[in-house]
Inverse folding.
């Protein structure tokens, strides 16, 4: 226990205590917007079909444009990209609220929903990218890098439990418009604060060396540095294709998203059949709380427990723990099965993002993290649509069968995919370590200092 606490202390020493807090509040709008938009449009239009269309276009916008924002952040730095996206997203979310309240037609509402999804500022993937960059710049060990992924995964889990809960509470005591208005305010304030935090300097973009280099050979030197920063040799002049494991991990995340969506549909169908539809959100929240707790504890695992083993163990556990859903038909067993199943979710998410970070070029990390997050969203949206129909035809077990099938396919991917035993690219080229960084190399996973500690 003490070792785990010390590991997380080293992580906070790298980021400063303010960055995780700011990034957490900046993630909440992502968790609130889709659920909030569905509730709002359903209430104002009286049509679940219209609500589903708007929620679907919002998800589609995020899936399609998320990687684009990630690539822009890699090239131009997080600060300008997040500031622009946050401003657009806040305005689009406000427009969605105004359009729904004024009875706007389905097509324009769906268009606004698409813009809202496309402008989601990607705080989760970018926070991972930034924290990992800070850890590598301080030459921290793999144990600290692993704890970074665990902390970021936990923040994601908590935000995706708390966000819908806040939406549901606002809808219960007032109106869904209050929740979406709050989401617009949160993204305007906290995403901007995330962008302006001093740690954004470590993600200034691939063009940063060129801007700071002087002399007749400046452009050539900058090109060489950019190639080294991308994890390639100084002669590399083009972007390389990601290794196969990256695509396998994206597929695995798509399947985990499918598990999320299928579980949501199955839980909603079963609680409705039992006459307690209000319990659906509480059951799902219980799963998220357990997942977050296990994700935080994952930081205690030693680095010698490799990512390949973690991936296989997490996907195997998801299959074993999801199978009882097929035979669950009463409320309390549902609570028990779903809560225990949550223990498999965070380890898989954390391992998948850690694998992505381990094998992609550092200069493409934000884009790759965004692709991973978009895969999760795409899987959830697809499964919600399919499993909802299956639940209507075959009952809750029809939706839960989708979750079990997705878990089985995810395990198969983990078993057949070749996972590199070590990093395939340099993690922190010396050329990009600012002079004011004073942390000395260490092999124990600790970092002696950080210029951002205490901020």
């Amino acid at each position: 226990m003490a070792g785990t606490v010390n590991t997380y202390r080293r992580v906070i020493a790298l980021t400063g205590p303010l960055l995780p807090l700011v990034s957490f509040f900046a993630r909440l709008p992502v968790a609130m917007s889709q659920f909030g938009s569905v509730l709002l449009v359903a209430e104002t239009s009286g049509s679940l079909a219209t609500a589903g269309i708007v929620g679907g276009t919002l998800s589609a916008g995020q899936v399609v444009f998320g990687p684009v924002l990630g690539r822009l952040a890699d090239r131009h730095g997080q600060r300008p990209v997040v500031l622009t996206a946050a401003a657009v997203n806040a305005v689009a979310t406000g427009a969605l609220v105004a359009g729904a309240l004024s009875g706007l037609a389905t097509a324009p509402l769906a268009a606004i929903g698409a813009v809202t999804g496309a402008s989601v500022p990607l705080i989760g993937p970018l926070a991972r990218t930034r924290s990992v960059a800070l850890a590598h710049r301080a030459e921290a060990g793999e144990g600290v890098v692993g704890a970074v992924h665990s902390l970021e995964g936990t923040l994601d889990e908590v935000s995706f439990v708390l966000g819908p809960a806040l939406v549901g509470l606002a809808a219960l005591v007032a109106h869904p418009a209050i929740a979406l208005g709050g989401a617009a305010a949160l993204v305007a304030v906290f995403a901007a604060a995330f962008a302006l935090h001093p740690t954004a300097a470590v993600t200034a973009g691939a063009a940063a060396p060129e801007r700071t280099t002087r002399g007749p050979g400046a452009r050539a030197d900058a090109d060489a540095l950019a190639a080294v920063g991308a994890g390639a040799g100084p002669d590399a002049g083009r972007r390389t294709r990601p290794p196969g494991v990256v695509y396998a991990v994206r597929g695995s995340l798509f399947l985990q998203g499918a598990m999320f969506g299928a579980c949501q549909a199955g839980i909603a169908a079963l609680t409705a059949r039992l006459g307690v539809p209000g319990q659906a959100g509480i059951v799902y929240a219980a799963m998220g709380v357990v997942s977050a707790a296990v994700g935080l504890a994952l930081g205690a695992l030693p680095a010698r427990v490799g990512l390949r083993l973690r991936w296989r163990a997490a996907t195997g556990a998801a299959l074993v723990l999801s199978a009882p859903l097929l035979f669950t038909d009463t409320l309390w067993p549902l609570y028990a099965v779903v809560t225990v199943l949550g223990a498999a979710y965070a380890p898989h998410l954390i391992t998948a993002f850690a694998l992505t970070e381990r094998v992609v070029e550092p200069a493409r990390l934000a884009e790759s993290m965004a692709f991973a997050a978009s895969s999760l969203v795409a899987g959830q949206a697809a499964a919600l649509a399919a499993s909802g129909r299956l639940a209507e035809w075959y009952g809750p077990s029809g939706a839960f069968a989708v979750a079990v099938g997705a878990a089985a396919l995810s395990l198969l991917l983990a078993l057949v995919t070749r996972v590199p035993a070590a990093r395939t690219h340099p993690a922190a080229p010396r050329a990009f370590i600012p002079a004011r960084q004073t942390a000395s190399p260490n092999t124990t996973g600790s970092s002696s200092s950080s210029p951002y500690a205490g901020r």
